[in-house]
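Annex B. Sample input.
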Amino acid sequence: MTQVQIRVVLTAETSSAAPAVRAVRLTADSVVTTMGATAGLTYRVYATREGLVGGTTANGHVITSRDHFVALPSRRGLSPNYSGDYTVRVCTTSRSRCEYAPVWDVGPWNTKDDYWNPSSVREMWKDLPQGLPEAQAAYQNGYNGGKDQFGRIVANPAGIDLADGTFWDGLLLSDNSWVDVAYLWTGTGTRGTVGSGPLNVRSGPSTSYSAVGLAATYAKVPIECYVTGQTVSGPYRTTSQWDRLASGHYVSHAYISSVSGTVSAC
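Annex B, continued. Sample output.
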């Protein structure tokens, strides 16, 4: 929290007195928080639609119609098939829509550009700032002669590819776009695995609240805490527990297959 609001009540011993405030000094005490998760590093990058229905991803997944996963340009962020070991939260820049999706393919452009890592760890392009994809630097600034690692002229600044379902249904995009991506494995705390998706992510703990995105099957979502809301029957349990994610949004715990860590009440 970076802002607080206070109210000062002025009193006087007599009705003729005119009390005044000359200064206010606030001191913060340390507080133990019960929040169980952080989203990790987040960068704004350019997203393109992968498509390629019927093709096979770098981890062996056969791409289906309206599929839900993403691709990043390094195997250092690649999940095994049927897992969400590496999961991202990708949001529109207005944050009106977000999707949690596993990383199941490598690309766009490069295959050794783990740009989310610091230069001491980054496999290639160590002189670029952390969070800046090589393709973006090549396209915008002529870095590496405007070429990717294979010598191809970079035609767009893409740092992430989105499967069709993530692109159209999760984010409601109609064209390639800038997005905000959280690389969730760089965060800390409790994670819940979505066992049955795509699952609606909602603005509150009930199906009456608006859907603000999706969480794909196998995605590992950062759970801050839980609240009691509408009772939902799902594939894993019937429960009134709703998990609050690090975005401040909610998913029904009825669809969470497993949790790593402890989830406390909000």
